[in-house]
Amino acid sequence: MIGFIAAGIVIGILARLILPGRQRIGILMTILAGVLGSIVGGVIANALGTGGIWELNFIGFVAATGAAVVFVALAEGMQLGPGADRKRIGR
Predict the structure, then answer these.
(1) pTM (predicted TM-score)
(2) Could you report the per-residue pLDDT of 70-79, keeping only the tens digit for each?
């Protein structure tokens, strides 16, 4: 599970680098986007028969990165993150 979270951090950071422009989301939203992307990537790789949900493979990594880009864009579009005029989760 710790490796899954570590992969999520890397994938979340990579997704922010791929997405053009500046994203005003915090590190927690980046990690969350990466972990969610990892789950989606694992499910896609499992559905294609290239590995399990918890395994790291190339197709799962590519799908996870693409999904994380979508999650980062959604978080930015919903204005979740730091800033005076931004919404906060849990408030």
Answers:
(1) 0.79
(2) 999 888 887 7
